[in-house]
Amino acid sequence: MNYEWDFSGVWAHRDMLLAGFVGTMKIAAVAIALGVVFGVVLAALRLSGRAWLARPALWIIEFYRNTPPLVHFFWAFYALPVLIGVSLDPYAAAVIALSTQSGAFFAEVFRGGLVSIERGQWEAARAVGMRSHQALRRVVLPQALARMLPPFIERSFELIKTTALASTLAYSDLLYQAMQLNSITFRPLEVYTVVAAIFFLALFSLSLVARVAEHRLAISTRAAGH
Amino acid sequence: MDFTWDFSAVLQHWPVLLKGVGVTAGLWAVAFPSAMAIGLLIALGARSKSRLVGAATRGYMELFRNIPILIQLVWFFYAFPILTGWQLTPYVAALLALSLNASAYCSEIFRGGIASLPAGQWEGARALGMRRVQVLRRVVLPQVLKRMLPAFTNRGIELAKNTSIASVIAVHELMYQGRALSAAYYRPLEILTAVAVVYFVLIYPGAYAASRLEKRLALRSH
């Protein structure tokens, strides 16, 4: 192999990649926050005990979980504006696509966590005189949240990786900025290797932090008498 | 809402979408078995006594799982040819990215499945005079494959969804055909909705089967 690597072009335009990194982080943070809201609503509908609320929520969840994320992006950008009569910029469309699809996954994480707490916990809390919202807040939720955390973190990682699809709508995320940089420097090998490395370092170090946090949590819940 | 739905473009040009479904299915049918085969090799590598092989396989798994698959695809299509001198066609680049990406997840499933079997099974089979490959094929895999089935089904679903990103490098699969149609007939709402429904019809049966399987296995283990 006598290819000579040359990172000078990438280094000279590092501000472009930095802007892309900020764009990726921004869209990921907003989509996680909105996805949690959407997920809580869907999970509440699923657990409402009323079929006319639970059924549609289930179908929304199943639809998002069983269609490709890229379809959601194109649908939000090209199709949704036709339906609502308002044109969306790439940022808004990408946030809608990301937060709705991750909301569908979060909903199942939240529902699964709540359902996994044994009935006896509810009954015992009621027996000592708590109202059901008190039982939920003081007894069930603290335990359920601990169980929800690992799958929640896993879905959030998936979401961060999925943000790269926003580049197909010309939103200035890290990948889109890399494509721009490539058209200036004509150095695809260096540009895309650097972008892959940035993603790897960011996600890998985040996953190490998450692993430590989960480990700590597992110890503290065990210490609390489980 | 004064928008009137008009599915005539979809109804007239459904063979175009059908062709896309064929390419999507082809990508999946090649990438999934390849991913399982590579995944098994990587999982065996991770069990190796050699620290170098162990570290390399773990690096492989972390690398492919911590980089967005779209970036892997773009890398194989635009960067890999410069490094190696082999210009890949979009279809081959897509197959490569999809297979390698899924193989990292498959290797994790194999690794967990194999580790779930007590070491006594290995020792017993070895004591009968079997080679390691024989132990794996005749004793270990038959017992753990069933346990790994739900996880592999879920991986197959993820892979089916991931095939859509091949449209970004102009592989003429379902997503690409859908976008081409919607650009040609200015009916994005109807056409992209139809594409989403087609994907759902293709993928949902797999998800349904996986959840049934999981419940059955959970019942049996009680």
From TrEMBL, chain B:
Pfam families: BPD_transp_1. Residues 21-210 form the ABC transmembrane type-1 domain. It is found in: Cell inner membrane; Cell membrane. GO terms for molecular function: transmembrane transporter activity. The chain crosses the membrane at residues 20-46, 67-88, 191-210. One of its GO terms (biological process) is amino acid transport. SUPFAM superfamilies: MetI-like (SSF161098). Keywords: Amino-acid transport, Cell membrane, Membrane, Transmembrane, Transmembrane helix, Transport. GO terms for cellular component: ATP-binding cassette (ABC) transporter complex. It is a multi-pass membrane protein. InterPro entries: AA_ABC_transptr_permease_3TM (IPR010065), ArtM/GltK/GlnP/TcyL/YhdX-like (IPR043429), MetI-like (IPR000515), MetI-like_sf (IPR035906). It comes from the Bacteria. Signal peptide: none annotated. Its main location: membrane. Part of the binding-protein-dependent transport system for glutamine; probably responsible for the translocation of the substrate across the membrane. Belongs to the binding-protein-dependent transport system permease family. HisMQ subfamily. This is Polar amino acid transport system permease protein. It comes from Variovorax paradoxus.
